[in-house]
Every structure is written in C-alpha cells, then in structure tokens.
Design brief:
11 helices, Ubiquitin-like (UB roll), 19 strands, binds FE2/S2 (inorganic) cluster
Amino acid sequence: MAENLNQIGLTAFTKLAATRQEAVNMAEPEYLPKEDAYAANRLAKQLHPKHQYFVISKIKDHGEGVKCFTFVPDTKRKTEHVAYFAAGQYLSVNLDIDGMPVTRAYSISSSPKMAAEGEIELTIKQVPGGLVSNWIHENWKVGTRVDTSGPLGTFTYEGLRDAKTVIGIAGGSGITPFLSMARAIADGDEEFQLILLYGSRTEDTIVYKAEFDALEARTDKVKVVHVLSHEEKEGFEHGFITAELIQKYAPKEAYSVFLCGPQAMYDFVDKELAKLKLRRKFIRHELFGEMHNPKAQKEYPKDITVPENVRITVIKEGTSQVIEGSTDDSVLQILEKNGIAAPSHCRSGECGWCHSRLVSGEVYIPTSVDGRREADKKFGYIHPCVSFPLSDMTIEVKPKS
Ligand code: FES
C-alpha cells in the first residue's frame, strides 16, 4: 500500500476500502497488547491519572478557618509524579468518614510549576456545620495519606475562547483557583492579564494578602483590588462587586470575567454582569460545591406532595439493595450516608462522573446545575449529585473506579 495518499492513483484510491477489508480478513485474530505496551498510553496515564496517592508534607494555617495542605507523591502506593495541571483545575479527594465514602472537589491553589517540581497544594476553608471540611481540618496531619483524582475541571484560561484580560471575581474560599492562576502568570506559564476583584469582610480577614502583594511585585500582569464589605479604608474598595466597580478596573477592549465564590455572590454579581451586556462566552463560573436546601428554591415542585423520606432501590454490579434517605439530600448524599460508594468528582452536575440510570421514580433537578446531555434526559439518566428525590425510586449506579 502506498505510504502517502497523494501518491495513490485514482483507481487504487477507489479500491482502498476493499483492500483494507481484505487485509482485515487475512489477519490472525489476536488480543491487543496491554495498554501500557504503548508509550503514548503510558504518557496519557501519567498526564491524566484516575487516582493520585499523596502524603501530606506541610500544613500552613492561614487563620479564618483556612489551612493550606501541601502534598507530595506517595511512592509506596506507586504515585511517582504529581500530574501536571492547568491553573484553575481541581482535585476530587476521596475520603472515608466513619465508614461513609465521600468525595469533595477542592481547587488547586499552587502553581503548575510547583507540580512539575513534585508538590501540589489544596487550600481548604472550614464551612460552618460542614461535615467534610471540618473533618479534614481535624484529621489531616503531616504524614496523612490522601487519595485524590487526577486534575479535573474547565475553569481555566483558554486563549482561543477568552479575552486577553480576565477580570477575576472571588469571594471567600473562591480565591484558590485565582491564586494558582496568578502564580502561573508570574511563573510565565500563563500569558493573560489578571485583574482580580477579591471580596472580603475586613482587611484582617483577607486570606493570602501577602502572597498576592508579592505576586503583584513580581509581574505587572497581576493586579489585585481588595473589596471590603464591612470596612471602609484607604487603599481598598468598599461595598460589593457591582457593574460600576467592574467597569472602573476593566480595560476598554474586550475582557473575560471569571467568577468563583459562594452561591450568594453569583446571585448578586450575575445581575450586575447582565448590565454590562458582555458576550456569553466571556463569562465563566466555577461550580463551587454541593447544592443544599432544594426545597427553598423557586422552581422546586409545589404541585405535588413530597414525603420527608424516601426508599431508594439501588442496583449496582448486578445486586440490589433498598436504602432510605431524606428528600432534603441529593441522591448521591443518600447513597454515601448509606455506605454506598458511588462515582463522583465535581458534585455540581458538571463533570458527568456520577451519571446513573433512573429506572423509576421522580427527582427534582435544578435547572441551573442540570449539566446532562439531551440524550441523557431522553433516556432517563441523571446526575445523582444534583438530583433530589421526590418519590421512592430505583436507580442503577456504576461501580466506583
Ligand atoms: S459528580 Fe460531577 S456530575 Fe455528579
């Protein structure tokens, strides 16, 4: 067969399919070699590992219920490298809390350069009443072994889609992906201009202020504007992040807006952004955490009687079991509270990792987090992390890999 399609004459070209079929028919049936036999597969596994096993090497307390955990590869469990990532991505952490298998997604706060040097950091803020963040703060010590996913998420700068300047809008622990981006810019690994509007209550409660000051001194591509909601002080903006404030710092030319923070911040800032009439592709939201309290939402069904508790028949790996749970919890939370390990990463309806078949029953899925494809909707698939039961139901769940 000719090496190059340009060298093939027209007659031979029309016979290509037949010639290939003939070669297929003559071939001996044999198993493909194991995937690790190919260098490209080995590289892909290194870049996109399903799991990364780490050991905590350092813990830094930043006050305000915020701790930064530094991980190094756990070579005893065969993680030799930290997988490279794009600034803005997250790791999904696998935990076992008193027999309950749970996952949580935390944005990476360190730079991609640091990963190449063998370390990676997660900055985790305690959530009042939050089961997992409080458990982590109490239980993770230097030397603790931690099991995470590979780098995940799409809250990253993409030169083909995003404008050259990004207005970052951060509130609370939503600062972590921006810290990674600012560090990547200062390292020369990202090329965009970052103007960060960072909301805090008072100057004393600003987390990572010294780090951002140092990054601004290293590069003129990072500018941080601190916006204090509970304090008026010279050198700081006061109040909330409004359309006027965004316009004050935005360039004349096109700019992208990246938001990361609590739901209340999105609700407020999204209304302000609507006034600016930016192109949709220039507004990016990081999905941040689980949705709680579904019954308080406007679109929660009012025309049916939803029981307090439901029974869920779970089919997994050919067996079935019946569990019970509250209609205030997502289907994923109910599975976990009953000790069933189900696949999940983002817990926000975006990644599709928890994708499961709803065999029967009704669920409420808030429109804002319904990240399913049309085919999933048509054929009865749901994302249990953002699906809240409205009735007894049966669900088929994939095993956790
Ligand atoms: S865990 Fe990502 S969609 Fe459910």
